[in-house]
What we know:
Number of strands: 14
CATH topology of the largest domain: Quinone Oxidoreductase, Chain A, domain 1
Strand content: 15-25%
Helix content: 25-40%
Largest sheet: 6 strands, mixed
Structural class: alpha/beta
Bound molecules: zinc ion
Order of helices and strands: EEEHEEHHEHHEHEHEHEHEHEHEHE
Amino acid sequence: xxxxxxxxxxxxxxxxxxxxxAVKDWAVVKVETAPMCTEYxxxxxxxxxxxxxxxxxxxxxxxxxxxxxxVGDRVVVMPQYPCGVCELCVAGEYIxxxxxxxxxxxxxxxxxRATMAQYLLKPMRLLPKIPDDLxxxxxxxxxxxLGPSYSAMDRMNVKPxxxxxxxxxxxxxxxxxxxxxxxxxxxxxxxxxxxRRDRAKQLGAAEALDAADEQILQKIRDLTDGRGxxxxxxxxxxxxxxxxxxxxTRRKGIxxxxxxxxxxTAIRISQDMIRKxxxxxxNWHYNLSGFPNVMKVVRESPAAKSLVSSVLPMSEIxxxxxxxxxxxxxxxxxxxxx
Length: 338
Ligand SMILES: [Zn+2]
Ligand SMILES: [Zn+2]
């Protein structure tokens, strides 16, 4: 099979690799769509890598034993390789599995963990079926586009009378706008880049503010009767945005962190949490039981289809990386067989 690789600084290409084979409860999926995520950061930095991607949707082409899927099923591919038997896995919180097995030891193979490839290998229980009325491209939004923010909105119990602040309007932030507006909430979106703010407005944000504006906290308070928003969701991973979320959320509100972050953010336990009564939470992915609801957002949200800004063949991986690295993109979908 072919798969994508980072070959050097700003250099990506295709390489050949053996096809993975079904083993035990792991099935082979022919990848039809591989949504791109943060791989471009490695491409910019020249971090050589041969296993790219963690998002995919496609068709089951090989199984080694009976299970929850069969050959021919169209499926979304959930991330990671959790054990499937620990308390967290059984509860659907597989993303937080404490006993993740070694891929090569379990499968006896080196290939099959990349999603930006023509085939991959995955535990059958992590291959929820795509409803007949949705295309594989549409269903692929159930990965990082809509997944983490679906869970964030669900855990915060965002409702129609609420105002939600969303900081960081890359593809995950844009999906957050879709999930919040789907629930009827009013969205105040924040980013440094004008093109991203424009995309957020097109997706349904009521307001889009410049993160560099020194009056931004006051502006958010002015938009919320001086009280601040009910809920905040950070998708930027920036400590400055973390602080804005904490300061712009009203007393007894909730702040949710979704964007990964390499730096520490200072949190004032007394002022932010005890006296203000804020709840601070982090969210990675979603409980597996949420999949039908994520499909409902894909199907019924008028804005969901606008999340995809380009669909490119994997043969144009270099161009696809350039597109992801630009400031004004939505979700970029790769087609590994084109
Ligand atoms: Zn587990
Ligand atoms: Zn992702």
